[in-house]
Amino acid sequence: MPVSAADPSFDPPVGPSGDWADLVQQRAVTATRQDLVLPRDLLRALDRMALQCCAQKQGQGKSPGRGVSALFTGPRGTGKTLAAEVLAHEAGLDFRRIGLSRLINRQIGETEKNLARLFAAGAALLLFDEADALFARRGEVAGAQDRFANGAADYLLRRLDDYSGIVILTADTRSHLDSAFQRRLGFILDFPFPDPAQRAAIWRRIFPPDTPVEGLDPERLARLPLTGADIRDIARSSAMLAAEEGQPVRMAHLLRAAVRQCARLNLTIDLTAIARP
Fold it and tell me: Which domain holds residue 205?
């Protein structure tokens, strides 16, 4: 009888030290709280999570050896990854973003082996983007694929209990995630679409201080229903357009960049909202 990943005694072998880099995007993070533009209650929840991270690192956690786990939900570009980077920076942990395309392996037991490599690589902040693709609701076993998915989910649940770092799952919505995961997670934080006041705040701080700008109107720009990630991309594109013309960044550059961004994302947005005062 083959060994099952759901068997409590199953612990996949781990490769040599450092044999996990192919599964992650690891980079130094410098993001701080000042980079976050979020509702006040969400910032307070992040404060509580940061305090627990610090207590765990100092060995003062409620459960010695247990790390911190969370689910961040919300539309693309609403600050989930940025918030995770801030937590990693504040906790002094490496930030490792998991590439699910490399993590998931359709051969029985291989995904569990990949997870084992990640958890054995030392304490870090592990960010599983689009977690509902891997940790969806476990259903009735109707075939080999169902047994594969359920086995990987069971294995991760067991590892969450004794990992000493931080594990964050991100998803557009919590409704598709397995309820057992949600019960095991210490925090579930919902990242909403930014309102006009938050969008204006993002526009005010989106350009570095040394970027030459002229005549920008954050309140007019905030009329566009965009996420923080969309605003960042438009700002970068507009800065390139302005640099090509040897000019400071103006509203005209932002309008052209917004047109490109909306076309790229297939968004239907009334851009006349910023074309007029």
Answer: 196-275
Name the DSSP class of 165. S
CB 124 within 8 A of CB 56: no
What phi, psi does 128 have (nearest 5°)? -95, 100
Asked whether the predicted pLDDT for residue 174 surpasses 60, the reply is: yes
Residue 192 per-residue DSSP state: P
Whether 52 is in a domain gets the answer yes
Q: What is the per-residue pLDDT across 43-75, written as a single tens digit (0 to 9) for each? A: 999 999 988 887 776 664 455 456 788 999 999
Whole-number Å distance between alpha carbons of 178 and 137: 4
Q: What 8-state DSSP symbol labels residue 170?
A: E
Structure tokens at 65: 């050896």
CATH number of residue 259's parent domain: 1.10.8.60
- pLDDT for the residue 151: 64
Helix 80-91 vs helix 40-57: angle between axes, to the nearest 10 degrees? Answer: 30
Task: Name residue 125's beta-bridge partners.
Answer: 95, 166
Beta 95-98 vs 24-27: how paired, if at all? antiparallel
> What pTM, to 2 d.p., does this model score?
0.81
Please, which residues have CB within 8 angstroms of residue 5's CB and are 6 or more apart in sequence?
12, 108, 109, 112, 151, 152, 154, 155
> In the chain, count of helices (H) and strands (E)?
11, 6
pLDDT of the residue at 8 = 35
Contact between 84 and 95 (Cβ < 8 Å): yes
Same domain, 184 and 218: no
- What's the pLDDT score for residue 194? 96
Structure tokens at 6: 């759901």
CA–CA gap between residue 52 and residue 45 (Å, rounded): 11
Cβ proximity of 155 and 112 under 8 Å:
yes
